[in-house]
Amino acid sequence: MHHKISIGEQDFYIPKDEYGNYKIFKEPGDGYSETLEVMKTLTPSHVVFNGAVDSLTGENALTAKVGETVLFIHAQSNRDTRPHLIGGHGDFVWPNGSFNDPPRTNLETWFVPGGAAAAAIYTFHQPGTYVYLNHNLIEAFILGAKAEVQVNGKWNDDLMKQIKEPSDIDWNTYEQHLLSLVDK
Q: Rounded distance, CA 21 to CA 14, Å?
């Protein structure tokens, strides 16, 4: 089974008031001059997927099944971006979005110039939560440019086998281990 996921990455420049809260304007044109001032900084207040922070996470997460091949189409109109799929990769990637060109293969991260689009195909091999994000992690986690793909299906021990149940981390033991590495 195959399906397509379109991700529009967009940057927003929203003015703040004297208390650091984002301003709300009654009419779109009312905030024009203040928005222009924020835009002149070239520092967005938000970088999001599909129009809003968390539009593709939690209850709005994308879904797929183990064995399913998904085509991700990623566009960014203003700024360069670097999509990445945590837990997977681009089996086949068309960095400039042209299917007439041969794809690049097995890319961890791919480049999308501002004003362009790229396409990537990935076949999900294990169930779990995969995170698709802008690889500028500040923009992904603080400004909102991330999505989740909830993949359902049966775990394949032939690909990866769990040898220990998840447990709490003993931070003291971990710190001692790190210090022993430095002392070597």
A: 10
For 75, list phi and psi in degrees, rounded to 5.
-125, 145
Size of the chain, expressed as the number of residues it contains: 184
Distance (Å, whole) CA 52 – CA 68: 27
Find the angle CA(138)-CA(3)-CA(118) to the nearest 5 degrees: 45
Domain ranges of the chain: 2-183
Which CATH number applies to 2-183?
2.60.40.420
pLDDT tens-digit map of 71-99: 999 999 889 999 999 999 999 999 888 99
Span 7-62, pLDDT tens digits:
888 999 999 999 999 999 999 899 999 999 999 999 999 999 998 888 999 999 99
CA distance 59 to 42: 32
3-state secondary structure the chain: CEEEEEEEEEEECCCECCCCCECCCCCHHHHHHHHHHHHCCCCCCEEEECCECCCCCHHHCEEEECCCEEEEEEEECCCCECEEEECCCEEEEECCCCCCCCCEEEECECCECCCEEEEEEEECCCCEEEEEEECCHHHHHCCCCEEEEEEECCCCCCCCCCCCCCCCCCHHHHHHHHHHHHHC
Global pTM?
0.80
